[in-house]
Amino acid sequence: MRQYIPFLPVVAIYGTLFLTGLLLEGMWQPMALLAFYGALGQVFNIFLGLTGYVDFGYVAFLAIGSYGMAIAASSLYEDLGWWIVPTGFVLAFIMASFLSIAVGAIALRLKGAYFAIATIGVSEGLRYLIEGTGLWGGSMGIIVSRPLREAFGREGANSLSTFWADSILYGIALVAAFITLMILKSRAGYAFLAMREDEEAARVMGIDTTRYKLLAFFISASLGGLIGASAWTLKMNYVFPSDVFDIVYTIEAIIIVLLGGSGTLLGPLVGGLVYGALKYWLAVTFPGLQLLLFAPLILVIIVAFPQGIIGILRERMGSAFRGVIL
Amino acid sequence: MKIRDLESGYGSVQILWGVDMSLREGAITALLGPNGAGKSTLLRSIFGTVRPWKGSILYRDEDILHLPPHRKVDRGIALVPEGRHVFAGMTVKENLLLGAYRKRARERMEGNLGLVFSLFPILEERQDQRAGTLSGGEQQMLTIARSLMASPELMMLDEPSQGLAPKVVEEVFSALTRIREEGVTILLVEQNVENVLSIADYVYILNEGRVVGEGRPDEIEKAGLRKAYLGL
Asked: Is A109 an 8 Å CB contact of chain B?
């Protein structure tokens, strides 16, 4: 049981967000936004945090997942009824998994910067493929409000979009955190640690580095696909390629993970909360100027605290808390 | 281990042009040769971090040419790569335990740890220290010790004396003879000819990707191969 203790703070934070949103008038959407950034950081961290490789095309997995849900909803609603949502999640998972394995099997053989460039290419390439060939509605995207209304009724579709989509996101975030904890506590966790420090030495010790990288890439990507399906398709009821392939989400994910503490359990969640709150606050206080202020602020934080918030906390609190704050 | 007609290289650049070589069990075999002769490439091709093109590597009646590195580790083959690849942020002990990553090695972890500490007492003293704070010589001993944790039957070392003070080089080499006494077969790549000839049981000389000479250290001296190929 001891090994699950680090999971408690995660549950406490998401629980607080969820209840605050539920109980306080007008707080559901802001809390859901924070949960989105927490979840985004959490799933992105499974790859960046564990392997140290930066995937600049990560948003493609959220995008392909959102398409999975949209395709299921728009083409199957007459046959499946409300089953389109579970089917959509399965499809999102499968499509994101396939993409990750196809991309990973090739790109993960590249090192550092080459990997980063290759992944941008995949994400942008996929977007132009969809827009150029008219696949899945091309640049017009897929709008799923009608199928969802038909399957769930007006009331049902409404609560799906304003309540259930966000609630499912909390669930995905918890699952992502739990998987992270399991990996960190297992032998694979040591393998990842060794790879991050020195990939050559890790290989020499008999660690199958390609397999572990592919595993982390796959887990991170498939969970990302579920987020896209829930937080975008179910919540917004539409998918446009220019929105879902927006590189800003990838950059936000990188910032969140580095800000909170890469490779830690709690870091990406805390990073997501701080980032989300900061972005929201700047947009309200300095409307129009937020982007101008945001970049230098983030830069300062990352230069000043390279290990992230959780890294600093762990150092300050000493060994007694090391086992709890992961 | 018997290597036959091994060819290998990087991309389309061929480095090894048909290397033949045999390693005797329990002996130190040294691989000498000028820079760029293909010595490191040969070690990496045997281990699998560079994919060999053709040829065969017979090890315990099995052709292991195309096995990936982790499968080689499972068969008791270890590589100590060039440069000191320690995990700088981890303690000495954590480095050593990671050396026993594969299942086969984990089963013998306790015994191997004792062996390693008896070979390198300094590492036992420093076991809780971060590896990055060790001196160059200690880091080299740690990389050797870490690969011993994998319970190797064949240990290949790529220039373990590189960048070390003469006194430290002697320590490293005397550790190698003690490792040989434990029954481990050693394949040693070196530039440090004097020291190598004093500990090796057999020597191969590699030049431009081919074996150009072989023999016991005294034969190498007599045949003048040492002068011809190594300029010493």
From this structure: no
Residue B14, token pair as written in the block: 């061929």
Question: Rounded CA gap, B149 and B78, in Å?
Answer: 10
Instruction: Identify which of A187, A206, A208 has the shortest CB distance to residue B150.
Output: A206
**Backbone phi, psi, residue B216, to 5°:** -70, 155
ipTM of model over 0.90 = no
Those residues whose C-beta lies under 8 Å from the C-beta of residue B166, and which sit 6 or more positions away, are none
pLDDT in tens, B28-38: 999 998 888 89
| CB pair distance less than 8 Å for B87 and A198 | yes
DSSP state of A228: I
Q: Is the pLDDT at B136 greater than 80, yes or no?
A: yes
* CA–CA separation, A29 and A35 (whole Å): 10
A107-A112-A113 Cα angle (round to 5): 90
The pTM of this model reads 0.88
Give the mean model confidence (pLDDT) for residues B73-87: 92
- Residue A62: which domain range? 2-322
**A204 near B CB under 8 A:** yes
Cβ pair B154, B77 in contact under 8 A = yes
CA-wise closest residue to A145 among A163, A130, A158:
A158
CATH of region B2-230: 3.40.50.300
Q: Does the beta-carbon distance from A205 to B99 stay under 8 Å?
A: yes
How much is the pLDDT for B231? 61
Identity of the highest mean pLDDT range in A33-42, B109-118, B129-138? A33-42
Question: Closest to B69 (Cβ–Cβ): which among A193, A197, A203?
Answer: A203
A206·B73 Cβ contact <8 A: yes
Here the CATH number for the domain that contains residue A71 is 1.10.3470
Q: Where are the domains of chain B?
A: 2-230
Q: Looking at the DSSP assignment, which residues form a beta bridge with residue B8?
A: B16, B52
Question: What would the mean pLDDT of B122-148 be, rounded to a whole number?
Answer: 93
